[in-house]
Design brief:
The structure is a homodimer of 322-residue chains. Chain A is an alpha/beta fold and 322 residues long. Chain A is built from eleven helices and 13 strands. In chain A, 30% of the residues lie in helices and 20% in strands.
Chain lengths: 322, 322
């Protein structure tokens, strides 16, 4: 894995940094001590490792004594102004082509959108070429202000998928969430090519849709709503939280706003409610729903409860900008 | 319980606050929604409840969109400059005198120091009078820059106990930590009067001392140390953390610094180490030691490992100032 030690050392020198803060997402945190040691071999700095959980470039740990924050594992989110932050994307070195080749059997085409996360974003030109050679018409879309690279999707933003008019999508990456997100956001079939496991599949949206409608149905009888507003740099929707609370109160419900950094079952235990409404990262409501003692809804799902949105068309919660 | 709604409403009006953030310690968090509702009945503000865990006035939740922070359940720490914070101490209304009366049987005297936490600090004059009537010579000490009231102790500061020359102490309050802290900090016997349970006892320092030496002994063979530096407003000792790491490295150990807001077993799981050294709240190392997979030492205990301190005299870690 390339932690770009040389670039960090150079930046530390240029900025005359005395203290560096290194922030890793959960899957890379264990490399922190050795990356810190390697940096200190080349430049005289103190190194702090961020111990706070981190899931995206929306969550920059500025709460520190450091002169420079080095954020690993995610691409910069262009719309978030990041001061004194160096993003080290830690791209994957795995060859995606064999799995893309396997996926050809599942692709009907002819127009195929290619989407991925930042780990594999440098492979998209070769994937494009490979699909073209196979007689397909591949497209790579540009995302909105939250998306740095063509074809890149985030757990909270599928704008690069929506930007193109295709019959179906090929998602390159592991885990179910992004592929299901593309399918829900576009209404199209998504073929998944996981280059780590060399496994191909079709994104299964049915299960998640059933789960979401199950929670929405359960929330229909609720009286007390606890609306969560995140303080993480790129997850702040305080105005939305306030609006939802006011709207709920106008309609005769009990509702209040909780501001919180890390949303966990044990922090929410202190806030009794029939339903939690999460204006922070949409993935918390969807991936972690089974962990909470009351249903956790997205703002869009809550608007279904309030009768402001039609129940029939399920829509994902996204952080999108122009 | 007195949440001082009127004073908060007045302050909100004076400050033309549009958004109030209410912060409660864990034991009072469940009152948040109703306190928020009562405030909103009198003044047109939006209310945010802080969902982040809180254990003291050392931990002010400024990470918010609010104009005014209302912090409940703790006294201000004078040495910490707190901007736009209103402290609502939520004093206890329990009558302490019956339990103090029970405690007389345990007090030898003649010179008795009276100590307590902020909940009962308004009762100390009557306790003083009561002890005097019983033929004892009671003393109430002034603490250092971290202590607001005469006779008040914190989990991290026993300066008001040390300030007086007495034969023994009477601690008024519940829980074991503060009383044991006074005993360890002064080397004197501490009689505990718990007015909630109407129970009296002698603070037992032996158990905690045995536990601490057990952990110190276990840490003697350690090679890798993870030093924790807190970002909470009144728990920051980055320089101490850096010094400890440098010192450990000079002596041939592996050591690194992790900066963290909430110290929990699951956040530390990402940082493998033989021993954790906690420069944050001393109570985390002592109260929660059984939760962590490796021994967690205070900086003073770590200096025993490094050979910089004599092993024979156990000293508590405190946050003290002049």
């Amino acid at each position: 894995m390339d932690f770009e030690i040389e670039r960090i050392v150079e930046l530390a020198r240029e900025n005359r940094a005395r203290v560096l803060q290194l922030q890793f997402p959960e899957g890379l945190k264990r490399y922190g001590p050795q990356v810190g040691k390697r940096i200190k071999e080349h430049v005289n700095v103190k190194v702090l490792l961020s111990g706070n959980p981190c899931y995206g470039a929306c969550d920059l740990d500025y709460d520190t004594k450091a002169d420079l924050l080095v954020h690993f594992g995610h691409a910069e989110i262009p719309e978030i102004v990041a001061h004194n932050v160096c993003f080290v994307e830690v791209r994957s070195e795995v060859d995606v082509i064999p799995t893309v080749n396997d996926a050809l059997a599942l692709i009907s085409g002819p127009r195929v959108g290619i989407v991925t996360n930042v780990q594999h974003v440098h492979t998209l030109d070769s994937v494009h070429h490979h699909l073209e050679s196979a007689g397909l018409r591949p497209f790579i879309g540009c995302g909105d202000g939250r998306i740095k690279y063509r074809g890149q999707v985030l757990g909270c933003n599928f704008s690069s998928a929506r930007a193109i008019d295709v019959n179906e999508y090929l998602y390159i990456g592991s885990g179910a969430f992004h592929a299901v997100g593309v399918a829900l956001a576009t209404g199209k079939r998504v073929i998944v090519a996981d280059p780590f496991l060399r496994k191909t599949s079709i994104a299964d949206v049915d299960l998640i849709i059933k789960q979401r409608y199950g929670l929405i149905a359960k929330a229909m009888d609720a009286h007390t709503f606890c609306v969560l507003a995140s303080t993480k740099t790129g997850q702040q929707r305080f105005d939305l939280a306030f609006e939802l609370v006011e709207e709920a109160i106008r309609r005769g419900y009990d509702a209040y706003t909780v501001t919180i950094n890390e949303i966990t079952p044990w922090t929410l235990y202190q806030f009794p409610a029939d339903v939690y409404v999460n204006t922070a990262c949409p993935r918390v409501a969807i991936d972690d729903s089974a962990l909470f003692k009351a249903p956790m809804l997205t703002p869009i799902e809550f608007e279904m409860i309030l009768g402001k949105r039609d129940l029939s068309e399920y829509t994902l919660d996204e952080f999108s900008t122009g």
